[in-house]
Specification:
The protein has 401 residues and is α/β, with parallel strands linked by helices. It has 4 domains: 19-146, Rossmann fold; 152-216, Orthogonal Bundle (Helicase, Ruva Protein, domain 3), CATH 1.10.8; 229-317, Zinc Finger, Delta Prime, domain 3 (Up-down Bundle); 325-400, DNA polymerase III clamp loader subunits, C-terminal domain (post-AAA+ oligomerization domain-like). It contains 19 helices and 7 strands. It has helices spanning 4-8, 21-24, 29-35, 52-63, 77-90, 105-117, 130-133, 136-139, 152-165, 175-184, 189-202, 210-216, 229-243, 247-259, 263-278, 285-299, 305-317, 323-336, 386-400, and strands at residues 42-45, 67-71, 93-98, 120-126, 143-146, 172-173, 207-208. 30% of the residues are buried.
């Protein structure tokens, strides 16, 4: 639910929009469409609070066209029918739909013919990736535009506009508080306005200070929707930073996941990383990761951050190898292609021709194990690190015996 200030500060025209210059700046695509008095159905996607609804409403205002706002979850089939009948009456209408990725089949079936005919021009908004989350029938009829997270300077611009608008009468805010509020807002201007309004009514003298903001909200606005792309982007960045041996970036993304209190995903990711990325270069890390995970689960937050930080530092600075992953994937590719062949007869159970290695010197005897079709196939290719050099030496010795 939006607070009053957030609604009052909503731009009336594209020129009032804060940020998104790559779309609405002079000479950019949406700017040019509006100045050409031409509009196509579109989907605006990106993180919350960055101006999707603002741009949609500003487009309608700049074109002087009738529009209606609906929500794909809240509004029912009848609400969509009413908009279509109104569009018929006025020979066209812009329909702005929030959470467009949640539009069910019944509502899609109502809209599609009128999108085709041009009676309805759809502007959909979503925080999800439309290429994954939106029904292809809707997506194919819309232009897709990605909105970027707002910068700290954009947020500061929004705060200064709110102060000068005097919607919150008599409000003042010092420079330190502006900087702090912009810092914790994490690109979300709606969050900024809502927090500013709460701080205003919570103050005695209408003066907004950093201390007051901290009393109202001590945590940064971390956008970590578990159904959204940003969540998976952070998880991906976490693993890639460890894989890339950047210990500081690894700790940064760990901190974001800890602050979101998502211990489960940290544990799952560490369990993958230690075998996928560290692998045979440092096999002792497997038990170490298990020990750190067990300690984190026993301790819980906030103390869990300590063993998690230690193991992440060690993983990031450990030698890396993906040779085991490459080996099993290569073997799986053969199996999935049907490149398998029959098990050699002396390995079938029972077989008098099988040679039991423990009956031979050094517990080894040369015999064929792969099917004839895959004879001499090699899946495992050692990497050049200290531990795998030992494994490579063993392999070479076995080949030469």
């Amino acid at each position: 639910m939006e607070d009053l200030l957030s609604i009052k500060m909503r731009p009336k025209t594209l020129s009032d929009v804060i940020g998104q210059e790559h779309l609405v700046g002079q000479g950019k695509i949406i700017y040019n469409l509006i100045h050409s008095k031409k509009l196509f159905s579109m989907i605006l996607y990106g993180p919350p609070g960055i101006g999707k609804t603002s741009i949609a409403c500003a487009i309608a205002n700049d074109l002087g066209m009738r529009y209606r706002n609906l929500n794909a979850v809240v509004n029912n089939k009848k609400d969509f029918d009413v908009v279509i009948e109104e569009a018929k009456l006025y020979e066209g209408m812009i329909l702005i739909v929030d959470e467009i990725h949640r539009l069910n089949k019944d509502k899609q079936d109502i809209l599609l013919p009128y999108l085709e005919s041009g009676l309805i021009t759809l502007i959909g908004m979503t925080t999800s990736n439309p290429y994954h989350a939106i029904n292809p029938a809707i997506r194919s009829r819309c232009q897709l535009f990605e909105l970027k997270g707002l910068t700290i300077d954009n947020i500061k611009e929004g705060i200064n506009k709110a102060v000068s608008s005097n919607y919150l009468e008599g409000m003042t805010i010092d420079e330190d508080a502006i900087n702090y509020l912009a810092q914790i807002s994490d690109t979300d201007l709606r969050f900024t306005y809502n927090l500013l309004e709460i701080a205003y009514y919570a103050s005695e003298d209408k003066k907004i200070t950093t201390e007051l903001i901290k009393k109202v909200n001590s945590k940064p606005n971390l956008y970590l929707d578990k159904n959204g792309d940003n969540y998976y982007n952070i998880i991906s960045a976490f693993q890639k930073s460890i894989r890339g041996s950047d210990v500081n970036a690894s700790l940064h993304y760990l901190a974001r996941l800890i602050e979101a209190e998502d211990i489960d995903i940290i544990i799952r990711r560490l369990s993958v990383i230690v075998y996928e990325d560290i692998g045979l270069a440092n096999p002792s890390m497997g038990p170490k990761v298990d020990a750190a995970i067990n300690a984190a689960l026993r301790l819980g937050l906030p103390e869990a951050r300590i063993p998690l930080a230690e193991i992440v530092i060690e993983l990031a600075l450990s030698p890396k190898s993906n040779s085991a992953v490459m080996a099993i994937d290569e073997a799986l590719n053969d199996v999935r292609r049907g490149d398998i062949g029959d098990v050699p007869s002396h390995l079938k159970n029972p077989s008098p021709d099988y040679k039991y290695p423990h009956n031979y010197k050094n517990d080894y005897v040369k015999q064929q194990y792969l099917p004839d079709k895959l004879l001499n196939r090699e899946y495992y290719h050692p990497k050049y690190n200290k531990n795998e050099k030992v494994l490579a030496d063993v392999l070479n010795k076995l080949k030469n015996m």
